Amino acid sequence: MRILPFIFFIILIALEVPADTDNFNSYFINAASAAKPSVVNIIVFEKEKGTAKLNQIAYGTGTIISKGGYIVTNYHVVKNGDTFKAIYSDGTYYEFQLFKNGKYYVADYKTDIAVLKLNDNGEENFIPLKLADSNILNEGEWVLAIGNPYGLKQSITAGIVSSKGRDNIGFTDIEDFIQTDAPINPGNSGGPLINLKGEMVGMNTAIRSASGGYQGISFAIPSNIIKQVCFDLTAYGRVKRGWLGFVAREKRINQGNDIKSVEILSVIRNSPAEGTGIKQGDIVKKVDEENIESLSKLIRVVGSKSAGSKIIVQVSRNGKIIDFNLILREKDEYVKIQGELEQLFQSYGFEIDEDASSGHIVVTSISPRGPYKEIREGDVIVAINNSRISSLENFIEKYRSAERTIINVTVLRDQKTYDIYFEDARIKK
Question: Which CATH fold topology does 242-330 show?
Answer without folding.
Answer: Pdz3 Domain (2.30.42)
